[in-house]
Amino acid sequence: MHTVSDLKKDLAAMGFKGTETVIIHSSLKSIGEVEGRADGILQALEEFFAEGLLVFPSMSYSLVNDKQPVFSVRDTPCCVSMLPEIFRKRPGVIRSLHPTHAVAAIGKEAAEFVAGHEKFDSPAHPDSPWGKLYKRNAKILFVGTPTIHSNTFLHGVEEWLPVPGMLTEEPQQLVVYDYNGRRIEVPSRRHVGSHSKWYDLCRPLFFEAGALAEGKFGDAHVFILDARQAGDIVYELLKKEPLFFTDEYQEAKQQK
After folding, report:
1. Strand 70-72 to strand 172-177: parallel, antiparallel, or no bridges (unpaired)?
2. Dihedral sign of CA atoms 198, 169, 80, 205 in order
3. Model confidence over 155-186: pLDDT tens digits?
4. Does residue 30 contact residue 74 with C-beta atoms inside 8 Å?
5. What are 87-101's pLDDT values in tens digits?
6. Is the pTM of this model over 0.90?
7. What SS3 string covers 7-70?
8. Rounded distance, CA 193 to CA 208, Å?
9. Where does residue 225 fall: left (phi above 0), alpha (psi -120 to 50 degrees), or beta otherwise?
């Protein structure tokens, strides 16, 4: 069984100092048996990055839509995995107010990091938390995930270009309730297509550029992606071929 101390040693072995901004995509069961179970894992992460900023995706895109338009920052669960759902409820964690693509954070400048997400009509505007990952030179950790395709940050890069047809033309009329119960109207466009299933094609490019490294956290294999380097690589790729991550482009390419 892994201890909290063991997990902190794993983070140090990956080269982290504890002052970084990190966002974690995770498979809880991949980490193995840990003292305190999920709370032990989160304790290790929060203690190690106490001088940095620890972020988890806290998205509810499958739960909030035009038919079920209400997002409560306190009550609406996230739909991405178990560890983020537990994390968002922990003392000191602050969740952003975006109805479909919120993040949750604790640590240095957490309130500033999540602030204003509800002002944008798209999930990953450059001034949203997803764009701030680039500005803060964050690391994106994929803990126990076999690929790096579940990567909303790269959706952001597609938005920033922008890639044609990446977002719905008409926004859904969604509603957010903040921590004080205040109602906020948030017109929100949705991401379109299955672009993320092609993101793993960038893995060789990231390794070649030194933007991607590997490590371990408990029993889990970890990919460590440098957000700024990865963002620059994908931005240049999409400038040359904006439709690179679309089914149509990749399927046509495979048929040649």
Report:
1. parallel
2. positive
3. 999 999 999 989 999 999 999 999 999 999 99
4. no
5. 999 999 999 999 999
6. yes
7. HHHHHHHCCCCCCCEEEEEECHHHHCCECCHHHHHHHHHHHHCCCCEEEEECCCCCCCCCCCCE
8. 28
9. beta
